[in-house]
Amino acid sequence: MKARIDHIAFRVADLEAALKFYVDVMGCEVADRFYIDFADGTQARCAALNAGTIQIFLSEGVGEGGVVKEWVAQHGNALHHVAYAVDDLAAAVEEAKKHGVEFLSEKQIENDDLIQIFSRPIPETGVIHELIQRKHPDAKGFATENVKRLMESTREVR
């Protein structure tokens, strides 16, 4: 598998403070902001930032409970996952499995521009890895429904 870093994602308690750091200190540019509404009535506020050739994705849980807020309560403000762009997601998943990588779901999450899947935390790093295939060479950013389904797939990760 020949993978390239696509984006890195952090779950944070205060999205505005995290944005201020990345914009004012690191010189990143905000590319997108959006909310994710979950079936349990909770929300996540999200932002994507351009950082050179990769993006930084930030999410903050809104209200009481919810997958993002619960994760931050347990882990603090921290790296959640590193996403690697691959040319053929199905082949990359099979190759990763041959090396003992386990995935949170057997089902890949797909829309018109993206196919994605999360690994379980990798024992060697403790970090979730995402494999992402962008179907078009100029495809950037995130699909709200994909983000929602990926976040929901991490509920059991502690």
- Could you say which structural class the secondary elements and strand pairing correspond to? alpha+beta
CATH architecture: Roll
The value of Rg in angstroms is 15 Å
- Helix percent reads 25-40%
User: What is the CATH class designation?
Assistant: Alpha Beta
Numbering strands along the chain, what is their spatial order in the largest sheet?
A: 2-3-4-1-5-8-7-6
- Give the overall shape: globular
Q: DSSP strand (E) fraction?
A: 35-45%
**Tally of strands:** 8
Q: Sketch the major β-sheet.
A: 8 strands, mixed
How many domains, as an integer? 1
Q: Average pLDDT across residues?
A: 86
Low-confidence stretches: none
Give the CATH H-level superfamily. 2,3-Dihydroxybiphenyl 1,2-Dioxygenase, domain 1
